[in-house]
Amino acid sequence: MNRISEIRAVHELGEKIGYGNLMNLASALWAIDLESKGIPESGAFVATILTDIKSPYRNRLVADRDKRKREIKQRYFER
Question: Under a CB-based contact definition with an 8 Å cutoff, are residues 22 and 13 in contact?
Fold first, then answer.
């Protein structure tokens, strides 16, 4: 699976079941996977409300999110 097919799969599923539901289920499945491997599961839950994230981390997360958005727009939507 390449990056474009990954984006397409997530886009189609997000549109089908809702993006919030997709993220919620993915976080739970990720945590279950980490737990089964004996890895701390706390990293599997990504904060989605920026006001809940303290600075200076907020700026980095916003920059990372915006970079990912640009990549997806360029690779998937602007083809």
Answer: yes
Rounded alpha-carbon distances, angstroms, from residue 45 to 1, 13, 30, 36, 75: 24, 19, 8, 16, 26
State the helix-helix crossing angle for 19-36 and 3-17, rounded to 10 degrees.
Answer: 120
Listed in sequence order, the DSSP H helices in 1-79 are: 3-17, 19-36, 57-72
Highest mean pLDDT among 13-17, 28-32, 37-41, 74-78: 13-17
1-30 tens-digit pLDDT: 999 999 999 999 999 999 988 988 888 888
